Amino acid sequence: MIRIxxxxxxxxxxxxxxxxxxxxxxxxxxxxxFQGPPKxxxxxxxxxxxxxxxxxxxKKTSKRIVSFKTQISAHFYPEKSxxxxxxxxxxxxxxxxxHFNITELHARKFRxxxxxLPVTQSLSTVLDHIHQEINTELSALQEKYxxxxxxxxxxxxxxxxxxxxxxxxxxxxxxxxxx
Length: 179
Fold this sequence. Notes:
Layout: E1 4-10, E2 21-22, E3 46-47, E4 50-61, E5 64-76, E6 82-83, H1 90-115, H2 123-149, H3 155-171
Antiparallel strand pairs: 1-4, 2-5, 3-6, 4-5
Helix pairs in contact: 1-2, 1-3
């Protein structure tokens, strides 16, 4: 019996020396976590840099894939996240936290889709395709969130979005990040 292990690191794993904060149910972002230099030429008061890291290993026997494992994590990047102290408040911080929560939601969706995959000989291609789909969906939802909340300025929409994201996270609770 021959065993071959392949590890593919996708997106942001190239930045393994970069400081990150993994998403956790119990950890809430604070302004101290936003360590990047503020972009003075931007109308934004703050920016959350977050993303999903993804890796997998495939076990082969006699050139056939027999099993696989994945690791999917939602991370916040302090050095790429920034805020303007003179304009920031707790309402904006909550808006930024929900950008991070949206990232975690998509990490959960990713784990759910992977959990439903059968072992096939095209597994690498399928995993890479799901990864691309998730990143596209994540980006689209982040943009929609900002558009509909007017970057946190529409308080009513902000409250509706927070309730929606909390509900979606609860639906996928069995796929949450484990710190």
